[in-house]
Design a protein that fits this description.
single chain; alpha+beta; two-stranded parallel sheet; 9 strands; 13% strand; globular; disordered N terminus
Length: 219
């Protein structure tokens, strides 16, 4: 179990977090993030993806705030941000469409950055608040398998970033981290010596097939 520093934030059990994140990404319960009074993700100049199936969300966002999502099929849109870098649906009292917010917001969890080793700010000063908070999260690990799964997620993120050109994999840090979680299973295999799992370097074609499956592209 990791020791906590004076400014650390308890991220909870890595195993529980990973299970919850995977369920949220598959449309099950929303991410349960202990945000407190942090609104960094709403005020960090981020584009918010809205899928074509999110009809209720689309009905609550003015059409002039949405435009086609680059690199995604027709019907996918993104919502920009205002001159202050704030989501246009964000007010001083919080999200004005909270009950109808996009799936991107429902599944957003900045703990995904320490989980995958992806830096959210990546030199972007607008993302500095997210990066500062993300680096404070500390997971607890109760089994060697927990450590192996985090190592696989981090290996997946590094592989995606280093081995694939932008287009097949997203350049956006959040989307890259999400994809790393979705494909990290390809970087694991059963370890017959320990009964747990071990991190491997899978063939490129295996990773590419997983990426295409997750991104909805068979070509």
């Amino acid at each position: 179990m990791q020791q906590s520093g004076p400014t650390d934030l308890a991220a909870g059990s890595f195993a529980s977090w990973l299970t919850g994140m995977q369920r949220a990404l598959h449309g099950e319960p929303d991410s349960d993030v202990p945000c407190g009074d942090c609104t960094a993700c709403c005020t960090a100049g981020q584009f918010v993806h809205v899928g074509p199936d999110e009809t209720e969300t689309l009905a609550h966002i003015p059409s002039d705030l949405l435009f086609p999502a680059p690199g995604l099929p027709r019907g996918h849109r993104v919502m920009g941000y205002d001159e202050d870098g704030h989501c246009p649906m964000f007010t001083g009292a919080g999200c004005s469409i909270y009950e109808h917010r996009p799936r991107t917001c429902r599944t957003y969890d900045c703990r995904i950055f320490p989980a995958t080793g992806v830096e959210p700010d990546d030199g972007d000063p607008d993302k500095a608040r997210i990066g500062s908070r993300a680096r404070r999260w500390k997971f607890t690990f109760t089994t060697p398998d927990d450590h192996a799964r985090q190592a696989a997620a981090q290996a997946a993120a590094s592989y995606l970033r280093d081995q694939f050109a932008p287009g097949l994999v997203p350049a956006n840090p959040t989307q890259l981290a999400v994809l790393a979680i979705e494909v990290h299973g390809a970087f694991l295999r059963p370890d017959r010596h320990t009964g747990g799992t071990a991190v491997i370097s899978p063939p490129r074609e295996v990773v590419e097939a997983e990426v295409r499956r997750c991104r909805g592209s068979g070509g």
